[in-house]
Predict the structure.
Amino acid sequence: MRGCDSISEYLAQYPLSISDVYYRAIESGKSDKALSVKNAQQLCQDLQDDEKRFFWHWLKDTLPMSVFDTLIKPVPSEAFGDFAEHEKILRHDADVYMKAMAKARLECSYVPNEKALALLEDFPNWLPLIHFIYMTDNSTDTDLEEICHQNGIKESVDLIIEKMKSAEIIREEKPKSKRKGRMIGRFQSIFRTPHNEKGQRLKDQFISEEVRKSLDRGRTHQMFTENESFLEAKIEAYSMKNFESIRHRILAVLAETAVCEQTLDKERTDIKPFFFSLIVSPREEYMPQKWRPPNPPD
């Protein structure tokens, strides 16, 4: 989205011949309908994009990655003269993408109210239910009973549903079929704790519990696997110049995981929940006071 903070701002500059909804689905990688060659050519013209670069990205999204890597070579851009200029533009675009990603995630986030936070503070063992409910488009009381059984939650599902409804954590929906039971829905696709003291306490509690579970599981330091925890933790010394590069890479990883967000679906056996966390924290107490850099001026 060249120079724009959001898709809406971008599309205002480049009117499209396809619908905004379809374009947003293509942009986010969530469209079930593949973009045809004819529509791709028209979209390239609408966006006033470089044809070679556009179709390089289109093929990358269309072909299996192993086929793409074998058959397709990178297309050098002719839009800038040297590497330094290229790098400068990429860094600018990265900042724009981060801002746009943050805005997009806020738009699809649900922030619980004070009553909801108080309820979860009283029943922190219900958090696995929150994780499940907000990873699915909708769920049933039978699904929740199974989650309760797997996580040792003793309270009845009916009690949990009523309390969560009252605290506006979930909503009860009309069943799509004549099946008996209750259908549970979420308010948004992301459940985000607020930036206040109660929200921070809940988030700290969530992270501590999930880290404990990760440490209790089998672990490997060699690679990521579907059934083991991957852990890497260390104390290292960095200059802020080096740390800036690390910061950009962390942001890139976070952006990629946001783009790849999936919804749990009983028809998709290849999708499963993972705990994903990155913690970077200063440790000035691990060095003598006289070695520490001076505090920056106010």
Q: What stands out?
A: The radius of gyration is 23 Å. The longest strand covers residues 138-140. Residues 7-80 form one domain. DSSP finds twelve helices and seven strands in the chain.
